[in-house]
Design a protein that fits this description.
Strand content: 25-35%
CATH superfamily: Nucleoside Triphosphate Pyrophosphohydrolase
Distance between the termini: 31 Å
CATH class: Alpha Beta
Shape: globular
Radius of gyration: 14 Å
Helix content: 25-40%
Number of domains: 1
Structural class: alpha+beta
Number of helices: 3
CATH topology: Nucleoside Triphosphate Pyrophosphohydrolase
Length: 107
């Protein structure tokens, strides 16, 4: 049987953090224009598990929006900030691997 997108989200979060989540909503689609990689981001609610690291994660931390904005490259920070915006439509954004590209950049 083929895994659905939300089943994949739940599996990946559990594998990388030890937490079981319930996807709440799609928050954005982000394309790295240099690598041609598209990331689909969801807001999730923790429903179980215990925080743990894995082969893919050195540590798991909870950051405030302010810490995200100052501690991450803009291309990645925006994903987290879009996810916590209240009642927002999913964002569609392009970046170069570090910085967001201007609105209207082709996806």
């Amino acid at each position: 049987m083929t895994e659905s997108i939300t089943e994949g989200v739940v599996r990946e979060v559990r594998e990388e953090t030890g937490l079981t989540i319930e996807p709440v909503r799609l928050t954005g689609v982000y394309k790295n224009m240099v690598l041609g990689v598209v990331a689909i981001m969801f807001q999730g609610r923790v429903v179980g598990g215990s925080i743990a690291t894995s082969d893919e994660t050195a540590r798991v931390e909870w950051w405030t929006p302010e810490e995200v904005a100052t501690g991450m490259d803009p291309a990645y920070a925006i994903r987290m900030l879009d996810a916590v915006r209240e009642n927002a439509e999913p964002a569609v954004r392009a970046h170069d691997g570090v910085n967001l590209l201007p609105n209207g950049s082709p996806l």
